[in-house]
Amino acid sequence: MKNKEAKQVSPHSAFLQNRRGQVTIFIIIAILIVAAVALFFVLREKIVKEEIPLNIQPIENNFLSCLEEDTLTGALVLESQGGYIELPDYEFGSEYMPFSSQLDFLGNPIPYWYYISGNNIEKEQVPSKEFMEEQLEDFIEEKINLCVLSNYNSGYEITKGIPNASVEIKENEIKVDLNMDLDVGFNESRKLITNHKVIVKSNLGKLYDSAKKVYDFEQENLFLEKYAIDNLRLYAPVDGVELTCSPLQWNADDVFDELEQATEINTLALSNLRNKDDYFKVDLPVSEKVGFINSRNWPKTFEVLPSEENLLLANPIGNQPELGALGFCYAPYHFVYNIKYPVLVQVSEEDEIFQFPFAVVIQGNNPRKPLNGTVIGTKTFGLCENKVNPVDVDIYDTNLNPVNASVYYECFGERCKIGQGYSLHENFPQCVNGYIIVKADGFKKSRQLFSSISNASISFYLDKTYDLLIELKLDGNDYDGKAIISFISDDDSKTIVYPEQKNIKLSENSYEVEVYIYKNSSIELGNITREQCVDVPQSFGGIFGLTKKKCFNIEFPSQLVSNALAGGGKQEHYILESDLENANKIEINVESLPSPDTIEQIQDNYALFENKGVDLNFK
Q1: CATH architecture of the domain with residue range 383-462
Q2: At CA 498, angle to CA 472 and CA 335, rounded to 5?
Q3: Under the phi-then-psi rule, with left for phi > 0, alpha for psi from -120 to 50, and beta for the rest, what region is 545?
């Protein structure tokens, strides 16, 4: 039997095997060290808490309660003030743009996320989530020093360091990491606690995200402006035509009052949680409840053109003598509105509400244009922000007495408030062929062409206005029926609907005085069918410009004329200031016209009206 030979191991191989064993041991040790370090960081808070002596632990618990309370308070302020704790600089509005940079809601100022400044520049001030975190950090650092630990003063020595907070706003919670030395001593025990952490339950992050989605949806779709236009066309005269032979008139104050009420009520009715087919349901890209608030007490402007003072008029067509062949009357109207008002948007879940205000703007019966990208002043030249040329403005009445007035400068479609007083030395923006406008209570507004390209001075002499009672007489007898009375001049016109309005404000000027008296009538105009013919291209000769006549019938429905012109006239009068200042009322005398029974007689009355005069007596 053959013996096996023992295998020989070289010294070099033995060294390599020993080296491999050592490396394996080092790797295992390294893994254990890394695992221990990771475990330490995971369990650090528990380890630290365990190291805090039991008699000092209540101080830390109370301090953490303060930190949690301050975080919740700051979050509520952010929610109630549109993402702001420290408000941005306040910017005033103007009489043409009523929005300041903040909305006063129940005494709480809330920065607008979108508004138009007093000098007509579109502006946004939407905070980011990072900005809110920074504001909350500053708030916590300021408030935590006020944390009261008085319940533990007996036997305790407590020293606070400088706070440094770090905040992370999550969807349903807020994480706060506060580095602040809290040195606590009690009898023989002493502990320095440097890090304090809390996680506060809050929907701030989720509500902010949804509020931002609602804001972006409005900026893209202008749904608030579309509802505003619906309100306008439903509650105010915008455009249309009525079959009537007498003028249509509306009191602008009454129209605006009804619009205000409708805007307030209908805005409150808007919601994203209504039934699918509900007119007031707003399809928003959020699941939380969203409400909208408007108040008639908030700043707003309603403007309408054409108008005479506070009167909207639509004159009839068809009762003029030259239109005798028409056979019927109609009054077309078209009014252009500019409307601006705020809406407060509230996004809520459970008992938390995030809110921000938004400016709704209608210009010329149309919604403003959506914003694209960063907001800049695309509609203005920034005229009012560059007041560089000094100008002296002195304001007097016609007796050379100084008058305290408001002074504006208008150019390139912008109007700048210059100042208030009777002798102003103020800087004006540079502009060629602008206008200085001077307004004072009790005086007629004055407007003068003025180029502000160099130092200059200008004086204004304002005409005083007088409020007088109108007393109308027809054929020498008192008349309390329906009438329209106008005082028309080149630079100033006044119109009232009598007898609802019996006072008028006038100043010295040359006026054409017009009085239209209307009485009830029962003239019935039957159905009218008229043939209308037009030239149309021939089928084969159109390319050579050949045409043929094509006729069709137009049918007008029957019409009842309930009011017809029955008196009045017009005449030029120059009214002196001495006539106005020594009188309390104006007696207006006009003559009657024949009571019309047919459309032809109505047209005859308009022809007679042109030759009738108007007598004025100041009493």
Answers
A1: Sandwich (2.60)
A2: 145
A3: left
Output the pTM of the full model: 0.67
3-state per-residue secondary structure call for 488-523? ECCCCEEEEEECCCCEEEECCEEEEEEEEEEEEEEE
* Dist CA 520 CA 276 (whole Å): 49
Burial class (CB in 10 A: 0-12, 13-18, 19+), 276: exposed
| 78-92, 187-201, 573-587: the lowest-pLDDT one | 187-201
Supply the DSSP string of 156-224, one letter for each residue: EEEEE---EEEEEE-SSEEEEEEEEEEEEEETTEEEEEEEEEEEEE--HHHHHHHHHHHHHHHHHH-HH
Helix axes 57-80, 204-221, angle to 10 degrees: 10
pLDDT tens string 497-535: 898 889 999 999 999 999 999 887 666 655 555 565 656
Beta bridge mates, 231: none
User: How many other C-beta atoms lie within 10 A of the C-beta of residue 298?
Assistant: 19
pLDDT digits (tens, 9 = 90+) for 539-577: 544 445 566 676 756 555 555 566 778 899 999 999 999
Which strand ranges, in their side-by-side order, compose the sheet holding 493-498?
493-498, 482-488, 509-525, 559-575
Neighbours of 181 (CB within 10 A): 13
**Residue 293 has what pLDDT?**
96
At 118, list the tokens. Answer: 């007093």
DSSP 8-state secondary structure symbol assigned to residue 544: G
523 neighbors 602 (Cβ within 8 angstroms): yes
**Separation between Cα atoms, residue 126 and residue 53, nearest integer Å:** 47
Whole-angstrom distance, CA of residue 547 vs CA of residue 518 = 47
- C-alpha 252/C-alpha 185 separation (Å) is 75
Q: Is the pLDDT of residue 470 over 60?
A: yes
Q: Are 130 and 95 in contact (CB under 8 A)?
A: no
What stretch of H or E contains 535? strand 528-537
SS3 378: coil
Nearest residue to 111 (alpha-carbon basis) of 94, 97, 123: 123
How far is it, in rounded angstroms, from Cα 498 to Cα 53?
Answer: 90
Give the single-character DSSP code of 464.
B
Interatomic CA distance for residues 464 and 441, integer angstroms: 9
Write the secondary structure of 17-75 as one string of H (helix), E (strand) and C (coil).
HHHHHHHHHHHHHHHHHHHHHHHHHHCHHHHHHHHCCCCCHHHHHHHHHHHHHHHHHHH
Work out whether strand 559-575 and strand 477-478 pair parallel, antiparallel, or are unpaired.
Answer: unpaired
- Across the range 139-156, mean pLDDT stands at 77
CA nearest 140: which of 64, 61, 58?
64
228 and 360 in contact (C-beta within 8 Å)? yes
Q: Which of 122, 372, 379 is nearest to 112 (CA)?
A: 122
Asked whether the predicted pLDDT for residue 234 surpasses 90, the reply is: yes
User: What separation in angstroms does the CA of 464 have from each of 378, 396, 467, 587, 588?
Assistant: 40, 10, 10, 21, 22
Residues of the chain with CATH 2.60.40.10: 383-462
pLDDT score recorded for residue 5: 44
Q: Which residues contact 215 (CB under 8 A, 6 or more apart)?
A: 113, 114, 126, 345, 356, 358
